[in-house]
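User: I'm writing a tutorial on reading structure tokens. Could you give me a worked example: one chain, its sequence, then its tokens, then a sentence or two explaining what the tokens reveal?
Assistant: Sure. Here is the example chain.
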Amino acid sequence: MEILPLSLRKRLQERIDQGNYRQLKQYSSTATDFFSNDYLGLNQNKAFEQCLLDTVYANPKLLGGSTGSRLISGNSQIVEDVEQYIAEVHSVEEALLFGSGYQANLALFGNLPTPRDTIIVDEYIHRSVHDGCTLSRARKWKFKHNDLLDLERLLQQATGEVYVAIESLYSMDGDLAPLEKIIALTQRYGAFLIVDEAHAIGVYGLGRVSELGLYPQIFATVITYGKAMGVHGASVLGSVALKSALVNFGSPFIYSTSPSPLMAVSIRVAYEFILTHKDLQEKLQGVIHTYQSLAPKGMSITASPIQTIRLNKVNNVTDLMTDLQKATINVCVIRPPTVAVGTERLRICLHAFNTQEEIIQLFQIIKQHNGTH
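And here are its predicted structure tokens:
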């Protein structure tokens, strides 16, 4: 007999009844990829794979674990060297490595603010930020997406130390934050701005903060490496004092086993690869332009590799997904609780390796099910 609390069984059944039940799946590597975060195609790039292999062959000890947390036995010269390299590449004082972007956001939002403080987040911010806010027990307020007037309204009311959290490129809608205007607002009210660059790094060079030269005006920047960078892990960029605060108070950092030497070195190899293969970014921009030019009239488009189609524009979502599966095209259906009820969507991720023929085939199937055509 299955041992499970009754309340948990009821919650799982509710997910099933609502059509939002999640299950692990394995996807064919031969299918057309319009759903992974591998924007530059590094995960399937043979030259990048060879760079990683050469690095391991030159130092097989990289394959070992880190043996403990950074504050006990897990610190190493390799990890510190990679952090210094990341800081130099981004032209910031310090970088601190984490096992994932989720861990980084838990440390920033869960351990630096206090219950006396206020965290103001864009309503479309990553779930990891919300979870971090819960840990800190600080007041959390949401401002309307990219709405400067709503953000200023909340800044005027906030008490204690005030933190503002945004993404530079939003993962659900594919639109960009007005970084410079938000910086001006946060500086006017003395708030500490944290920018998540998870989906921007690699797509926009070293990220939009780097491209716009905004690091000196930002409290912390989160960089993750499991998307366009093709590896794993994350780093928080900022001042010497910020790194010290995270090392002293960031529970996910203090109580987690250190990132392995292989993870750290892989991140450095990824940086070196994208910096010497800028044609990958150019190819990605070409694919985005092709998508924009071929998109059916009236379909919303963005300037980024993340495109969306609201499900309320689709006649029958089940039939659409069946036809896409028959054509071996992978796209992602985003449902609650990831997005709000009524904003369900198809998220289409574009990559440097997608072809014009693949985009044409995608649109041919979507047009057959589009309730507005």
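What the tokens reveal: The radius of gyration is 21 Å. The first strand starts at residue 32 and ends at 33.
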